[in-house]
Amino acid sequence: MQLLERFMKLDRRWVYLFLVTVCVIAYYADFSLPTIVEKETRSIYEFLDSLPPGERIFVAIDYDPSNQAELHPMTYALMEHAFRKKLRVIFTALSQNGPGMADQAIKDITDSVKVERTYNGVTFAGREIVITAMGQDFRIPFPADYYGVPLDSIPMMKDAHNYDDIAILVDISGGNITDAWISYGQGKFDFPLALGLTGVMTAQYYPFLQSKQVMGIMGGLLGAAQYEDMTDNPGLAKDGMRVQLMAHLVIILFIIIGNIGYFAARKKHK
Amino acid sequence: MVVQYFVPHEQSEHAKEFLLDWIIVIGIFALALGIWSLISVSMDKINKRRTNWEYSAVTLIGLVTMTFFGFTAHGDGSWWTYFIALIVLLAALWFYVQGLLSSGGKPMTNILIGAGLSAVFALITIFDNSWTFHFYTPEGLSNMMFINFFNYIMVPLQATMFALLAFFIASASYRAFRARNVLASLLLIAALIVMLRFTPGPWGDLLAKTSTWVMNVPNLAAQRAIIIGIGLGIVATALKVILGIERGYMGKG
Amino acid sequence: MKKTALALLFFLGLFSVSLAQTDTSKSSFVTPPRPVTDLTAFDSNNDHGHSITLNWTPSADDGAGAKSVISYRIMRATSAGGPFEEVGLAPAGSITFKNSSSIDPASTGFIPDHTDYYYRVDATTMDTTVISSSDIAGPVQSSGQWFNKGLYPVFWAVIIFTILTVLFVFVAKKGRDLYVRPLAGIEAVDDAIGRATEMGRPILYVMGLGTASDIATIASFTILSRVAKRVAEYQTDLIVPCYDPIVMAVAQEVVKSSYMDANRPNDYNEDDVFFITQAQFAYVGAVNGIMLRELPATNIYMGKFFAESLMMAETGVVSGSIQIAGTDEIAQIPFFVVACDYTLIGEELFAASAYLGREPLLLGSLKAQDIAKAAILVLALIGIILINFGVGQDIQWMNGFRELFKVTD
Amino acid sequence: MELFGIWIAALLTLGIYSFLYKDNPVYKATEAIFVGVSAGYWAVVYYFDNIYKKFWEGAVTSDNPDYWMYGGAVLGLLFLTRLFPKIGWISRWPLAFIVGATAGLYMVIYFVTNAMNQTASTIMDIVARNAAGEILWMDTLGTLVILVGVVTGLVYFFFSKEHKGVFGTAAKVGTWFLMITFGASFGYTVMSRMSLFIGRMDFLMSDWLHIIK
Is B60 on the interface with D (CB under 8 A)? Predict the structure, then answer.
């Protein structure tokens, strides 16, 4: 009983020491934790996986450096999957610093998958209009890509005109551009729409999943980790999640220890 | 200002802008008072050699150094005179403030030494062309030392202080989440469910769903109640101030 | 790899430029869409002026018919004959547009009040040369209004609330004893000051990161004045580190006057209330240092707090202080609840000064707050009943009822 | 310079972390540097942003001077009278002005956003139906729970009524809701706070020590 009671009043420094140790080990350790893949992430993966090579997908990168830690892993996981499947990917960025984010991701990924050309982008105001206009033809808002290469001279864009020519649109977003994609894009042109969101935003968009406007949602680092799991391609997200999960478990462990101590002490005093 | 809300006319918007501007202008004078407060409290500690007075000196050096960097721009040439000037400035200010604050002793001596050192500082400023003061243009903000201090001292310190929260959140949950009674148990269970939401295992999916529900339903409800309460509390407090019922802020309790 | 394989595309450009550059020879011929009809232009309601609202019926080819309309270009001129210039763009499907500017004459696109304008809306297609214009609407002038009619419900609610407060203050003044339920956090304040006196340790009062323009900070001043008065009576030390210089100056005044009220002006020390820095985490670092070095018997946190709430409260636990907190920052309440001994939640912070003062005047306003809460509950319930059980009877009126509460700024 | 800077940053970082063990000279020094440098930084930035840009350029050197600014300056000067004990009482005027103006400015805004709009969103259809008109039982339950939570939560905040009987029970249920909320928000925040620490770990391990995985 003595031992159990001491659980109740552990010095906080033991908590800290244990937490640091576990985090550092988890940071370096090369073990992989199983992730339970949620239905809403799986549906995105399965959709992409079922596409034949050469099919076009559309990825909207709508986040800023402040959300980078959470959303970059998602973009990487998705892109690597798409490239390995030899899908053709069209990118847009409609947020302030989105192009920078997309550029970085594209460069990093193409380093590992050796894609021949990359294109960069600039921002654009009035996103509802851009989204609506692309429903007519991508060439209306964007006659050329960022480097000024006319879309018509890019082979993969030859017969790609509007949302009818893409298999799915994935919006990876850290802000309210998602609303515009849902109401002006999906709502008007009825294409399959999947979302990649920050952890905090996720809960807010579940109603759209229920109403079938959105076919899948990846939520934060966790969603990215699930995607990495399914594509069997552990990366940034799995690394981050490993530390996160272990840290959470440490905290939970200490909560349990504290309660054991508390009940032991109470029993004794009775 | 209550009226202002209902009057959309531009004159009313102008009035609002003026009032906000005034508060900013008052803030300028307040900042001077604030900095003076920081200096005098620190100097008091140093003069009376209270415990930890050394650290107050470090604070003051940091304050003067950063301010000096912010108002000067360094061009080409040697950095040595720049730093010597800074040290002389620190010393001069030290003696001045000592002279102004010291209750006993010989204030005049201190002030005279301060004056002598300022003269040296002025000479360096005049004869050294590698750096200059800029009070009318914000060139100091792009001074290399100012930026370095910002990047290598302020930014990492801010991030680290913020990151201490990872530990505090751990020790707080260890200490406080005990199932003492119904309320504490509810707190504990809600926290556990949400924390466990991404653990692997057959229960993971269920917990994820439950935590989403908890965030969207009971959480939303209680937050709404708190928000409405806060709204009324704010209005009542503002009203009391306007009607002059509440004068506590003027010390009339 | 082949050029055709895995071409990555990131294509963006400026809309206007792109339209000009589109290779028209390749695009298929587009028949002009049917134009926008019923265009009306009028001064925007309830605003500061410098704004004109347009309403229209969309083109028959917008989302229907030939589906060729992609956006509407809003054209404006100072005379009916033109020249018209583009002032905005609305996506297909829209039926309204607000052409407004700031009140600053130097700003771009400034719209002077009391000046005639003419508007036209062009339905545009993917081919820039194919557009159809609507009839011209105008002349129209913008002007500011002196009363925002959309805010009538708010206006009356505020008036009623004010009357209620004054009424109850009078009732309280007449000597009617108003009951207020005990608040643990408030009662703890008195005990805590006594405890500090016994232990010979100071009391730390943290005002948070709010500025003097936050009502929570004003509430905190009122609480500080009560605390300072007791502290002066008990002759305990008080430490008030400040984040904002204006707050510091006000807090000094508050503490000073409280010492005078307690007839101990000589015990007041200007340096008890001091400024640290306006950097959030440096402030936290300094306050944490004070806690561990001065070992205050009690830490009181009242006002606006952000991420620092838990950092201070956890350090306070280490220093063994009794901790009482109160904030209206909803995201931080959980941390105070977890780490502090007593927490005033939201509205309780604003009620605290009335509790501490125990003056009938202030208690009267608490009663008014309660009545307002009751009114909100009753109105919300009536609203819910109407919406759920009155379906189909008078929907228009019901929506009006809901609209009563909905105010858009 | 960059290497030097990273070393300084790393040492300061460790200095802060040493606080977790206990208060110590290294932490005290780090804290003192932080306070001094940040106060200086804000003073300089404030000077250029407000004194210089807003006041000097706006009211003194401007072609179209904003004379209103001088009113603020006068109040600001009155503020400084507090340095002289005899006329220090004058400094209460600007103080009353700030508090009064703030109170007026925010009173109605908060009434609208906090009280009225939140009430409006509480008035909703209890029975949730999908497009086909079928009743969604989970969502209906959700709206009912929200309704109960809002009502009992508000009841908890009543000050002038004793928490007894039905009223007391409602207030008690209200506190349950509050506690669930606090627990859940707390648990939800753990992840983002851990990310901050992982960020610092990244800095120490890769940028400073170059221990790359």
Answer: yes
- Based on the domain organization, do B23 and B114 belong to the same domain? yes
- When pLDDT is cut at 50, 70 and 90, the band that residue C106 belongs to is low
B123 touches chain D (CB under 8 A): no
Quote the CA–CA distance of B195 and A252 in Å, as a whole number.
Answer: 8
Q: What is the pTM of this model?
A: 0.82
Residue D112 C-alpha, separation from nearest chain A C-alpha, in angstroms: 23
Residues of chain C with CATH 3.40.50: 183-358
Residues of C in Cβ contact (< 8 Å) with A159: none
- Distance (Å, whole) CA C17 – CA A94: 17
Q: Name the β-bridge partners of C302.
A: C326
Q: Provide, as residue numbers in chain C, all residues whose Cβ is less than 8 Å from the Cβ of D159.
A: 180-181, 183, 351, 366-367, 369-370
Residues B201 and B239 in one domain: yes
Burial of D148 (0-12, 13-18, 19+ CB in 10 A): middle
**Per-residue pLDDT reduced to its tens digit, C115-149:** 788 888 888 776 667 777 777 777 777 666 655 65
Domain count, chain B: 2
Q: Which of C146, C166, C348 sits opposite B7 (nearest CB)?
A: C146
Subunits with at least 3 CB pairs below 8 A relative to chain D?
A, B, C
C-alpha pair distances (Å), A45 with each of A48, A201, D34: 5, 20, 48
Largest CA distance in chain D: 78
Query: What is the nearest CA distance from C276 to chain D, expressed in angstroms?
Result: 7
Residue D39's domain comprises: 1-66
pLDDT tens figures, D96-123 = 777 777 777 777 777 776 777 777 777 7
Kindly report the nearest CA distance between residue A208 and chain D, in angstroms: 12
A158-167, B75-84, C251-260 — most confident range: C251-260
Integer Cα distance of A115 and A106 in angstroms:
9
Average pLDDT, integer, range B126-140: 80
Cross-chain residue pair B180–A206, CB shorter than 8 Å: no
Residue D41 sits at the chain C interface (C-beta within 8 Å) = yes
The Cα D110–Cα B231 span in angstroms is 5
**What proportion of chain B, given as a percentage, has pLDDT over 70?**
87
* CB-CB neighbors (< 8 A) of A247 in chain B: 166, 170
Domain boundary among D49, D66, D83: D66
Q: Could D194 and A28 be called an inter-chain contact, meaning their C-beta atoms sit closer than 8 Å?
A: no
pLDDT digits (tens, 9 = 90+) for A145-157: 766 677 777 777 7
CATH topology of domain C183-358: Rossmann fold (3.40.50)
Residue C83 region by backbone torsions, left for phi larger than 0, else alpha for psi between -120 and 50, else beta = beta
Question: Are residues B97 and B53 part of one domain?
Answer: yes
Specify if D179 maps to a domain. yes
CATH topology of domain C31-140: Immunoglobulin-like (2.60.40)
Tens of pLDDT along B153-169? 988 898 899 889 999 99
Last residue of a domain, one of D37, D66, D95: D66
Q: Which amino acid is at B54?
A: E
User: How many angstroms from the chain centroid is the CA of residue B214?
Assistant: 35
Contact D120 C181 (CB under 8 A): no
The shortest CB-CB distance from B208 to any of A38, A247, A254 is to A38
| Residue C34 neighbours by CB under 8 Å, 6+ apart | C59, C60, C61, C65, C123, C132
Question: Using the beta-carbon criterion (under 8 Å), do A247 and B171 form an inter-chain contact?
Answer: no
Report the complex ipTM.
0.84
Of B148-152, C356-360, D67-71, the range with the highest mean pLDDT is B148-152
For residue C81, count CB atoms less than 10 angstroms from its CB and return exposed for 0-12, middle for 13-18, buried for 19 or more: exposed
Q: Is the CB of C71 inside 8 Å of chain A's CB atoms?
A: yes
For residue C137, the one-letter residue type is A
D138 with D60, same domain: the answer is no
Same domain, B204 and B108: no
